[in-house]
Write a structure and sequence with these properties.
The structure holds 3 protein chains of 3 kinds.
Chain A: H1 20-36, H2 44-53, E1 100-105, E2 108-109, E3 122-126, H3 127-132, H4 142-146, H5 148-156, E4 161-165, E5 175-181, E6 186-196, E7 201-210, E8 216-226, E9 231-240, E10 245-254, E11 259-268, E12 271-280, E13 286-293, E14 300-309, E15 315-324, E16 329-338, E17 346-355, E18 361-370, E19 376-384, H6 388-396, H7 401-418, H8 423-437, H9 442-447
Parallel strand pairs in A: 1-5, 4-6, 5-7, 6-8, 7-9, 8-10, 9-11, 10-12, 11-13, 12-14, 13-15, 14-16, 15-17, 16-18, 17-19
Antiparallel strand pairs in A: 1-2, 3-4
Helix pairs in contact in A: 2-5, 6-7
Chain B: E1 2-11, E2 14-24, E3 29-33, H1 40-48, E4 54-62, E5 65-66, H2 72-77, E6 80-83, E7 90-94, H3 95-109, H4 117-130, H5 135-139, E8 141-142, H6 148-162, E9 166-170, H7 178-190, E10 197-202, H8 206-210, E11 215-220, E12 223-228, H9 230-239, H10 242-249
Parallel strand pairs in B: 3-10, 3-11, 6-9, 9-10
Antiparallel strand pairs in B: 1-2, 1-4, 4-5, 7-8, 11-12
Chain C: H1 4-14, E1 28-30, H2 37-46, H3 51-65, E2 89-91, H4 105-113, H5 118-124, E3 128-133, E4 136-140, H6 143-148, E5 152-155, H7 156-162, H8 164-170, H9 181-189, E6 194-198, E7 208-213, E8 224-229, E9 234-242, E10 249-252, E11 255-260, E12 265-272, E13 284-295, E14 300-307, E15 312-315, E16 318-321, E17 327-336, E18 341-344, E19 347-350, E20 356-365, E21 370-379, E22 387-396, E23 402-411, E24 417-426, H10 429-437, H11 442-453, H12 455-458, H13 463-477
Parallel strand pairs in C: 3-7, 6-8, 7-9, 8-11, 9-12, 10-13, 11-13, 12-14, 13-15, 13-16, 14-17, 15-18, 16-19, 17-20, 18-21, 19-21, 20-22, 21-23, 22-24
Antiparallel strand pairs in C: 1-2, 3-4, 5-6
Classes of the chains: A alpha/beta, B alpha/beta, C alpha/beta.
Chain lengths: 448, 250, 482
């Protein structure tokens, strides 16, 4: 699965100093988790060493500058609920969606609630089964070698989805992964491995939900390999009540002429950080990264993206939009990295944000790091408030303020939602957002 | 003035000019017409010395010099001017400064002193009036924010400033409305003289109503397949290019 | 790649040596290498400083010892050995100078070579010049004339002696000692610099200018500049820097503090041309500089910089927009060639209401250099209706150079409007060809295009500096396009 490393510049300055107190805290956390979680990884030694060598993020770690992690060090406890039936929650969160389904409750696979695809050229099963039967080898991904929390996932994640689609096979229905977090203080680690053969095609929806009394942490690492000319879309929807700390890594490797699209929709979550690392490892790749986040109250949403252009003639486009309410905090850190061989790169990145309240905060860091000359790269970032003129115009036509704002919200994030490939998912995202924000007239606004 | 002998040129793997012959005498106006993709703009680029094209054969004599041996700057300074189909924008560089650098480059080539500020400004004023280029455009950045017509007028203004011996107009009529076309054509006509030649590349006959050519050539598939007087242009306008293509292939 | 002829022309010009790479043979008074309390006491004693100044220095030294050199910039260099360099080098003087006529003739010749002959300056442009060589200010012209308006323009050493109340009040008020590793070091060992005070309501009638020069080998330069513009005053301040060509890396760790009181305006322009090292990356200045200004109500600070020199640059001229309706501006052209590295940008901290800031940054990378823009726009909760516009463009001249953009945008007030745009592209081959077709040679074409690209910034410079900057850009980039 791993791609041959080339002698190219490292992704930015790599000197991350260890910080004694944080290291101590991190390692204490590791032993705390070891006590709670029965699962022990086999490649323990390598990962164990990484957990010691890598710097545990702290306030002065550049990539974690805006992401407070104290919540992770809270006491965790083993899960008591491991089936969806006991969790008082629908196994299928998207009405009307005809999809295969893998349900994980507190990180444990729930076979009764799941509906695995059985088709020629498609292998899909819980990761633990795939490892046990020798279908997939345990490998240490590049993100585990650079991020302490990813290494932590390497240490403790024993479950997840394994999906392999053979050459030229098109999966007939989307695969929905539903991760449910239930109850207080549960540590959840999931590892998804997705391998798409050349010219194959698949859609995955990764849905995470949580009970209102849920807390603890979710740490997910999704490794994706998109084969030559393959097309893969990943729709992530995060709709978690409670106080869960949710950390998700996506490590995607694209072969030549492949297409990858990812949508990250954060509807709710006390603390969410998405870290996307997309490698364009062959010529002619196309990557699209879109996202919306509308945190309220004291929610924290962080989107980190890295698009690593390693080869020539690739394009990437990225659009993240945030509206921040209450005392929420948003972070966007998008890096476009163009290596010396990646001539004729075309990279575009846009991050637009609206501060919808006095106490909200937005921190943005759109970065370009470019080592090839024949490129077209640009980024734009805006932070502002609702357009007063437009609001006034709508109100002068007799539209109430909230309604008018809902219209503007739709105008602002509508294009991202519409770019979701699966209409049922787009519909449900709209529905949940209007519930959360009391936008009765959302659908009307949609018509305007 | 210009003698092109069996010129072959290609870009990448595809050969575009496949042995083109053309002779232009002093004071003559030649028009080259042809369907899209026949190699018209390639010919203009190759003559001006754009290095994206590889010359794979043939010779070009310009005023007794081996044109193909010269770099683009030397060609320009020796009196070859190309009016670009798509004039390039250079943000932050004023039209005036740009022209001054160009004119002084040419003067240095001719062993002359740089032109004095006052004389230069007078010259600008005189030449700009030829194409009705107002002061605003003269002081703006080169072609930046110019409309299509303004860009083309600016090309003719530059031509008037540099007084070339041979001017190649590459689809100068494209994107021009009839008024702009008339202005551009007037500018060109006012520069016609027994010592100066023109090579007018166009897809449509319309321009040739205003700039009346002595010879019309039809370029098909990288070769000149027919040569005639101005009436050939009218015939092409009426009958299209297909009959010529057929006549050539049969 | 096209335009072989151009490459050749450019190669020839690249070989052009650094113009200011001469050394001046002046007897100099130099401290032994190393940094400790005794050295600091020695510096303070040499300068005949009052006790409070020595105390400040020693405190700064204690702070510095606890700090670490920053590693976050996008720079790669061997950290200087702070114990191997000398912290004081002064042109030896027999006595305090009373007029220019008493200046060492060798020194005057140095200034001539730099094109800043004081006499010349006096006569032609009426620019008042302070000249700092190897840490010590050697001459300040026009002092008397400025004095009539109540303007103080003198070396920092003189200011400590003659205006202790102003120094005590303002020095360290904008860049505190513990701000960063280099500011702490500077506070401990700074040897001289310029001080400028413009009284209430006075518009300084001439450009004030400081030329910095590192002459001695094995030394660092640690100067400190403090400009205080009192209520309703205006000053335009110019700064130029050169250094001789040496194989070793020399450290320049300066601190510049600007204070613009209510309704005051400070325009600070820098043309930085420290020795960049040779084509192989040997030698050159490490330019680690902290520059910051504070704006009170309706005050304005405008930083303009043309950065062409130094082996490594670490520099973020910043504005703290404390007062309501205050304005901060940052205009920068940073050119890197050969093995140079630059990590430069600005910080705009919006605290007051209706504060505005503008950032225009133009990076040009050539050779195998690395050029980064790093900037922070911070809108505090109190900064109602704050506005920022940032435009950061990068131009790549070669496929071996790098251009990077690291903007940080932190907004804590919803009425703020922040816009950031950045583009990275290659110098236009079609633009070059267009020039060539008009008979403009490659070298001149590049110079035209680059100057056009940087025009928004160059336009901000005072006239006499703008011409110098344009030439400098052309020289720095010759030999660039591959």
């Amino acid at each position: 699965m791993s791609v041959g490393a080339k002698t190219t510049p490292a992704l930015g300055p790599q000197t991350i100093r260890q910080h004694a107190a944080s290291q101590k805290q991190g390692l204490a956390h590791v032993s705390h988790l070891s006590e709670i979680l029965s699962f022990e990884n086999e490649s323990n030694d390598v990962i164990g060493a990484l957990l010691k060598e890598l710097a545990v993020p702290h306030r002065r770690t550049e990539r974690w500058k805006y992401s407070p992690i104290a919540g992770f060090w809270k006491k965790h406890k083993p899960a008591t609920c491991v089936t969806i039936a006991d969790s008082n929650c629908e196994a299928q969160p998207v009405p009307g969606l005809d999809a295969y389904r893998l349900v994980f409750v507190n990180g444990t696979f729930d076979p009764l609630a799941s509906d695995l695809p059985i088709a020629a050229g498609v292998v899909c099963m819980p990761l633990s089964d795939a490892v046990r039967s020798g279908i997939v080898q345990r490998e240490i991904s590049s993100v585990e070698k650079s991020e302490w929390f990813a290494a932590l996932n390497g240490q403790f994640a024993g479950e997840g989805m394994y999906l392999a689609v053979e050459k030229a096979v098109e999966l007939d229905r989307p695969v929905l992964i539903h991760q449910r977090q239930q109850g207080a203080g549960v540590p959840t680690f999931l590892r998804h491995v997705i391998e798409l053969g050349a010219q194959s095609q698949a859609q995955v929806v990764n849905w995470s939900s949580a009970s209102s009394d849920a807390s603890g942490s979710v740490n997910t690492l999704t490794e994706v390999h998109v084969g030559e000319q393959a097309v893969f879309t990943l729709d992530k929807v995060q709709d978690e009540s409670g106080e869960v700390h949710h950390l998700a890594f996506e490590a995607v490797d694209q072969a030549a002429n492949s297409t990858f699209k990812i949508h990250t929709m954060t509807i709710q979550g006390a603390w969410v950080r998405n870290d996307l690392q997309i490698c364009l490892s062959g010529q002619g790749c196309d990557a699209h990264l879109n996202g919306i986040f509308l945190p309220t109250a004291k929610e924290f949403v962080d989107n980190h993206t890295t698009v690593d252009h390693r080869e020539a003639h690739c394009t990437s486009s990225e659009s993240y939009k945030g509206i921040l309410y209450g005392q929420s905090t948003g972070v966007f850190n998008g890096k476009v990295f163009v290596r010396p061989d990646a001539q004729q790169t075309n990279a575009y990145q846009q991050n637009a944000n609206i501060l919808g309240s006095r106490q909200a905060t937005m921190n943005a860091k759109p970065e370009l790091e470019i080592y090839a000359d024949d490129v077209k790269c640009s980024h734009g970032c805006t932070i502002g408030q609702f357009d007063d003129e437009a609001l006034f115009y709508a109100r002068s036509r007799g539209i109430g303020e909230d309604e008018a704002k809902a219209m503007l919200v739709h105008a602002f994030i509508g294009d991202v939602i519409e770019s979701i490939a699966i209409p049922e998912v787009a519909m449900e995202v709209r529905h949940r957002l209007s519930e959360k924000h009391n936008w009765d007239r959302w659908d009307d606004a949609n018509l305007l | 003035m210009l003698t092109i002998n069996k010129l072959k040129a290609s870009i990448g793997d595809s050969e575009i000019l496949k042995g083109l012959d053309l002779t232009i005498g002093p004071g003559e106006v030649h028009a080259i017409m042809g369907p899209n993709g026949s190699g018209k703009s390639t010919l203009a680029s190759v003559l001006a010395g754009r290095e994206d094209y590889a010359v794979t054969g043939g010779k070009v004599d310009f005023l007794g010099m081996e044109l193909l041996e010269m770099d683009a700057t030397a060609r320009a300074r020796s009196g070859l001017f190309l009016a670009f189909q798509y004039p390039v924008e250079i943000p932050g560089v004023s039209n005036i400064n740009f022209m001054r650098a160009a004119l002084n480059g040419k003067r240095a080539h001719e062993g002359l002193e740089p032109i004095a500020g006052k004389a230069f400004l007078e010259l600008v004023k005189e030449k700009a009036s030829l194409v009705e280029l107002d002061g605003r455009l003269r002081n703006r950045s080169v072609n930046e924010g110019f409309s299509g017509g303004e860009k083309k007028r600016n090309e003719i203004f530059q031509m008037a400033m540099l007084e070339p011996k041979l001017a190649v107009l590459d689809e100068t009529d494209s994107g021009l409305d009839i008024d702009a076309l008339r202005i551009v054509a007037n500018g060109v006509n006012s520069m016609r003289s027994p010592e100066r030649s023109f090579l007018v590349i166009t897809h449509y006959q319309r321009l040739l109503d205003y700039i009346v050519p002595d010879f019309v050539h039809v370029l098909v598939d990288g070769r000149i397949v027919r040569t005639g007087g101005k009436e050939l242009a009218l015939e092409l306008e009426e009958r299209g290019y297909d009959w010529i293509k057929e006549a050539v292939t049969s | 790649m096209a335009y072989d002829g151009k490459d050749k022309v450019l190669e020839e010009v690249t070989a052009k040596a650094y113009e200011f790479g001469f050394t001046t043979d002046i007897e100099s008074d130099k401290a032994p290498a190393g940094l400790n309390e005794d050295i600091i006491r020695m510096i303070s004693a040499k300068k005949n400083e009052p006790d409070w100044m020595l105390k400040t220095r020693l405190e700064a030294f204690e702070v510095w010892k606890t700090m670490e050199e920053p590693e976050w910039p996008h720079l790669s260099y061997t950290q200087p050995d702070y114990q191997a360099m000398s912290y004081y080098a002064a042109p030896k003087q027999k006595k305090k100078l009373n007029s220019l006529d008493e200046v060492d003739p060798e020194l005057l010749r140095t200034m001539d070579k730099l094109g800043i002959s004081m006499e010349e300056q006096k006569r032609l442009s009426g620019v008042a010049v302070d000249f700092v060589m190897d840490s010590v200010s050697v001459a300040t012209s026009f002092k008397a004339k400025l004095g009539e308006l109540g303007i103080i323009f003198c070396s920092m050493s003189d200011a400590v002696q003659e205006h202790p109340e102003l120094i005590k009040k303002y020095m360290g008020s904008v860049v505190p000692t513990r701000d960063n590793f280099f500011s702490a070091l500077n506070a401990a060992v700074f040897t001289d610099g310029s001080f400028c005070y413009i009284p209430k309501g006075v518009k300084c009638p001439m450009e004030l200018s400081t030329y910095f020069r590192i002459n001695e080998s094995g030394t660092g330069q640690f100067e400190r500049t403090l400009v205080v513009a009192d209520v309703g005053s205006y000053v335009s301040y110019l700064e130029g820097c050169t250094a001789p060509q040496r194989d070793e890396n020399q450290l320049h760790a300066a601190v510049v503090e600007l204070v613009a009181l209510d309704n005051a305006e400070i325009k600070y322009s820098t043309v930085q041309n420290w020795y960049p090292g040779d084509a192989d990356g040997k030698g050159g200045i490490f330019n680690f500089v902290t520059k910051r200004g504070i704006c009170h109500t309706r005050a304005k600070i405008s930083w303009t910089q043309v950065e062409t020199g130094s082996a490594v640059t670490w520099k973020y001229p910043s504005c703290i927009l404390k007062g309501d309706y205050s304005v901060g501006e940052f205009y920068s052209v940073a050119v890197t060639n050969n093995a140079q590295q630059a990590d430069t940008g600005t910080k705009m901290i919006h605290i007051g209401r209706n504060t505005h800031s503008t950032i225009i940054s133009k990076g040009i990378s050539s050779g195998r250099s690395q050029n980064s823009y790093r900037g922070l726009v911070q809108i505090m909760p109190s900064a109602e209706n704050a506005r920022n516009f940032s435009q950061c463009d990068s131009l790549l001249m070669t496929d071996t150079s790098g251009a990077h953009t690291f903007p940080y945008i932190e907004v804590k007030n919803p009425s703020a409007k922040v816009e950031h745009e950045a583009t990275t592209s290659k110098i236009g081959e079609d633009q070059i060809f267009y020039c060539l077709q008009r008979g403009i040679d490659a070298e001149q074409a590049i110079s035209l295009i680059v100057n056009g690209y940087a025009k928004d910034v160059l336009n901000q410079l005072p006239m006499e500096f703008a011409v110098e900057a344009q030439k400098l850009l052309a020289i720095s980039l010759e030999g660039s396009v591959g």
